[in-house]
Amino acid sequence: EPMSGRALVVDGISKAFGGNQALDSASLRAEPGSITALIGPNGSGKTTMLNMICGFYRPDSGRILIGDTEVQGKAPERVAGCGVARTFQTPDIPDGVTVLEAVASGRYSTDRVSMLSTVLRLPRHHRVRAADIAEAERALDVVGLSHLRDETATALPLGMRRLLEVARSVVAEPRVLLLDEVASGLDEDEVERLAGLIRQLRDAGCTIVLVEHNFRLVLALADTIVVLAQGRVIAEGPPSAIEHNPRVLSEYLGV
Ligand code: ADP
After folding, report:
1. What pTM did the predictor assign?
2. Which of 66, 77, 135, 181, CA to CA, is 20 to 30 A from 187?
């Protein structure tokens, strides 16, 4: 296929776990510098979609392109090497590192396993380079955590650990950033800061796919909303089209 011009293409992806069809020929296309929100009821396949894109799961069929590179079936490190970063519902932060070190370690790694190994492999004085510290400080400033830079990362409350994890993904300068429920557990102020950061990233050209339960946040942030139900895409469009779609209201909001 010729140049797609898209940052991310998911083309007819299917995945079954045993007899359970988690994704059933689901597709999405995201432009460079856009925010796509994945919504749908519990069990509709949202997390599986993120796991497919970042290489944690191998699809049974279908294609995934990052730019013009096919990545389906590639190992997570290879996919990360194509510029894909993701966050997790439960931030996984190693013991004994400061907030600043944790964020700066995002410069070296774009996958979950290597956060711990990168930080531990390096002698302490080599853990972070000056340039990486500057990047990490900027990211911490945007998420409003600068004053906590020297605190132990794991000691932060969950909401702040989520912001930390987003800041950490940001310093990896991903082309495609996958955000999994990053707003849950955040207070209103933190949600605002997070939304600001996500918009800045989008405006800098990053392509963002987010799984998010906060419908107001989705409506405020997304350029495109993709609605999943039972592993299929049942609706797709801008917030103005999705918010009044009767099928979405019944599937997603249960009304
Ligand atoms: P959502 O994120 O929309 O809540 P998921 O993608 O987590 O949905 O799950 C979709 C379906 O796939 C569910 O039925 C879930 O139980 C199943 N599933 C997801 N991951 C696994 C797994 N690793 N092993 C078995 N079943 C899984």
Report:
1. 0.86
2. 135
